[in-house]
C-alpha cells in the first residue's frame, strides 16, 4: 500500500455523495483503474504506426519537455508502480497515438464520458455534431434490436443498453452546451 492518507467515507454506499451528485464512492472503487489505464496505453501504442521512440519524441514536442522511450515504457509497466503518467503526458499520448481510450477510461472511472468537441463554429460544425450524435443513437438502436431478437432482454443487456443510451444523451447535451457557449 502507498503512503497516501486514506479517505474516510462518511456516507453509506448507494447514498448520494456529499455534493448530491449521484452515487457515493466506496473504498476500493478505483483499485483497478491504474492496471486498466496501463492496458489502454499499451493498446494505444500497439495500434499506433509510430515506434515507441517516435511516440516519445512527439509527446516531448507537445509537452515541451523531454520524455524518453524508457519513461514511456515505465508508465506502461505493471512492475513500475511508482511511474504513473501525469495528466499532460496521458493527453499527449492520446493525441500522438490518436487513441482516446485512455482518456475515456479516466472519464468512465469518474462516472462521466469524454466527448470529442466539434472543431470550429458555425452551421457546418453544428451539422457535423448533430450527425455524429445521430450515428451514435443509430448504433444504440441496432444494439437494442439485437438484444430483442431472442424475445428476451437480459438484465445485463438492459444495463448495457441503458449505459450506451445515457452516454449518447450526455454527449448530445454536452455538444449543445459547447455550441451554445461558443457563441
What does this structure look like?
- With 183 residues, this protein is mainly α.
- It folds into two domains: 33-109; 123-181.
- The chain contains seven helices and no strands.
- Helix 1 runs parallel beside helix 4, helix 1 packs antiparallel against helix 5 (101-109) and helix 6 (123-148) runs antiparallel to helix 7 (155-181).
- 14% of the residues are buried.
- Residues 1-19 have low confidence and may be disordered.
Short description:
The protein is mainly alpha-helical.
Number of strands: 0
Overall 3D shape: globular
Looking at the chains present, what oligomeric state does this protein adopt? Answer: single chain
Please identify the structural class as seen in this structure: mainly alpha
Uncertain segments of ≥5 residues (pLDDT<50)?
Answer: 1-19
Mean pLDDT: 79
Provide the number of structural domains.
2
Could you tell me the radius of gyration in angstroms?
Answer: 20 Å
Order of helices and strands: HHHHHHH
Q: What is the strand content?
A: under 5%
The proportion of residues forming helix, as a percent range, comes to 55-70%
Distance between the termini: 48 Å
Task: Sketch the major β-sheet.
Answer: none
Number of helical regions: 7
Amino acid at each position: 500500500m502507498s503512503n497516501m492518507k486514506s479517505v474516510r467515507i462518511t456516507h453509506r454506499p448507494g447514498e448520494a455523495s456529499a455534493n448530491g451528485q449521484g452515487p457515493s464512492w466506496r473504498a476500493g472503487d478505483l483499485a483497478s483503474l491504474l492496471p486498466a489505464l496501463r492496458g489502454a496505453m499499451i493498446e494505444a501504442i500497439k495500434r499506433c504506426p509510430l515506434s515507441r521512440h517516435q511516440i516519445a519524441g512527439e509527446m516531448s514536442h507537445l509537452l515541451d519537455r523531454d520524455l524518453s522511450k524508457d519513461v514511456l515504457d515505465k508508465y506502461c509497466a505493471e512492475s513500475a508502480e511508482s511511474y504513473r503518467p501525469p495528466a499532460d503526458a496521458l493527453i499527449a499520448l492520446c493525441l500522438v497515438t490518436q487513441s482516446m481510450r485512455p482518456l475515456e477510461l479516466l472519464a468512465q472511472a469518474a462516472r462521466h464520458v469524454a466527448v470529442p468537441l466539434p472543431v470550429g463554429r458555425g452551421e457546418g460544425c453544428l451539422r457535423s455534431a448533430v450527425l455524429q450524435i445521430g450515428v451514435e443513437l443509430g448504433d444504440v438502436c441496432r444494439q437494442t434490436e439485437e438484444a430483442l431478437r431472442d424475445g428476451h432482454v437480459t438484465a445485463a443487456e438492459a444495463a448495457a443498453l441503458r449505459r450506451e443510451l445515457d452516454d449518447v444523451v450526455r454527449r448530445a447535451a454536452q455538444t449543445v452546451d459547447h455550441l451554445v457557449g461558443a457563441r
